[in-house]
Specification:
CATH class of the largest domain: Alpha Beta
Largest sheet: 4 strands, parallel
Distance between the termini: 26 Å
Number of helices: 11
CATH topology of the largest domain: Rossmann fold
Strand content: 5-15%
CATH superfamily of the largest domain: HUPs
Strand order of the largest sheet: 3-2-1-4
Shape: globular
Helix content: 40-55%
Number of domains: 2
Radius of gyration: 19 Å
Length: 254
């Protein structure tokens, strides 16, 4: 572990006292937002709201921004209006991230913020992640990655800071539940969100419901919760029956 990483982050924030943060309400961007506020920066959070973000993410983002006293701007984005995104090619994330970051940059610039940062950390691997290319092309700075802060380190620092996100499971957008080259529809996203909400309500906090076209669903839980999922088979089927013709539990645990 590099114990100079937090010092380097503080130095970055001192050198950039006015920043906008592309904010998801997750572990990494929450810690970046907290750090910027603690360093005395003039910082504003920007949350993108599209069909790909479930309601709880906006709720978490709002709660976090309020708790540390940072203004939050919610930016609406119709992801399915862009055919490059809706067609869901293997590099969909590139097109989506490019559109989102361009939109956030416009809003931030209109508010007088020229520096846009995001929460990418040192564990995020550039290989096979087209969204990382979009970050570079859009000129977005990733201070946590630049200061070599890993996810586990960020979680520990977040816990020390009293941030409720410190143990929040990592989350990928709802579009990742749909196989590449399967057209993304609002109705599929909605039924996936309903199913994941129901499963979280049953105690499965780190869960994915993946679409198995045309009408099936595959549930993925952590190894620690696999037996619990199997034992609650009847309840899970009851919760998902109206949205999916078949439901399976993936034995390759998350």
């Amino acid at each position: 572990m590099n114990h100079n990483d937090t010092f380097e982050l503080h130095e970055f924030l001192k050198q950039n006292p006015r920043i906008a943060v592309a904010f998801s309400g997750g572990v990494d961007s929450s810690y970046l937002l907290y750090s910027a506020k603690a360093a005395g920066c003039d910082v504003r959070a920007y949350f993108i709201k599209s069909q790909f973000q479930p309601r709880f993410e906006l709720e978490d983002a709002t709660r976090m921004a309020d708790s540390i006293g940072v203004p939050l701007t919610v930016v609406a984005f119709d992801a399915l209006d862009d055919p490059n995104i809706a067609k869901n090619p293997p590099d969909r994330c590139y097109y989506c991230k490019t559109a989102i970051l361009s939109k956030l940059r416009e809003h931030a610039a209109a508010d007088g913020y020229d520096v846009l940062c995001d929460g990418t950390n040192a564990d995020d691997d550039e290989s096979g992640r087209p969204g990382m290319r979009a970050l570079r092309e859009q000129g977005v700075i990733s201070p946590l990655r630049g200061c070599r802060l890993t996810k586990s380190r960020i979680r520990r620092l977040s816990e020390q800071a009293g941030l409720f996100t410190h143990d929040k499971p990592s989350y990928a957008c709802l579009a990742t539940r749909i196989p590449a080259d399967t057209v993304i529809t609002a109705s599929d996203l909605e039924r996936i969100e309903r199913a994941e909400d129901a499963l979280r309500g049953m105690g499965f906090l780190d869960v994915r419901v993946r679409l198995v076209p045309p009408d099936g669903a595959m549930i993925q839980v952590t190894q620690e919760q696999w037996e619990a999922a199997a034992s609650q088979r009847a309840g899970i089927l009851a919760a998902m029956r109206s949205d999916f013709g078949s439901v399976t539990l993936d034995m390759n645990t998350r």
